[in-house]
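Because discrete structure vocabularies remain unfamiliar, we reproduce here a specimen of the format, pairing a chain with its fold in token form:
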Amino acid sequence: GSEASLAQCLRNNKLRVITDGSYKNRRGTAAILVTTPDRRHSLLARCSVPGPASSQSAYRSELVGILGGVQLCRWLEETHGISGMVTFGCDGEAALNRALRYTSANPTKPQFDVISAIHSLRLSSSIEWQPRHILGHQDLKSPDRPLDWWERRNLFVDQQAQSYRRLLESTSSPVPNPWLPSEPWALFIKKKKQSF
């Protein structure tokens, strides 16, 4: 797909982002799809969820997918000097709400590092974020009903996140918990991050 076409779609308030996380065996991954509604132009990203095994969860995986989606949209915004509206779909309703509907983060709550990084990016952007909760796993829950556009894309990113997690389980060690690029602050004691 074409980066310029994705930027034009953002400018025209039609850009869509779908994210999903995968968590199993104390390891998390996420997949992000940034696409035009006709899917002729898209960008797919997969990532490992940073942090020690004790901080991993399905919720953290969903949040890291959202962080990745917001980062990609901000990259389009900054690279092309444009703004617009993004419809942002995710089946993790709690993560979607915490990331895109609220503007404050509580440092005593789990996943503060990722949530504050998302909020920092959002607040530095002129993009309008339209969260859209997608019902997940509808291929299994409603097998007799055809999936809608959002449910099909959600199934795709779910499969991408799961396959990437399986790949990482067999080939690499967990990702340390770094200071995330847009995280406003982090607390480290003896080089070990405490704020996650």
Remarks:
- The helical segments are 3-11, 58-80, 93-100, 112-123, 138-141, 149-171.
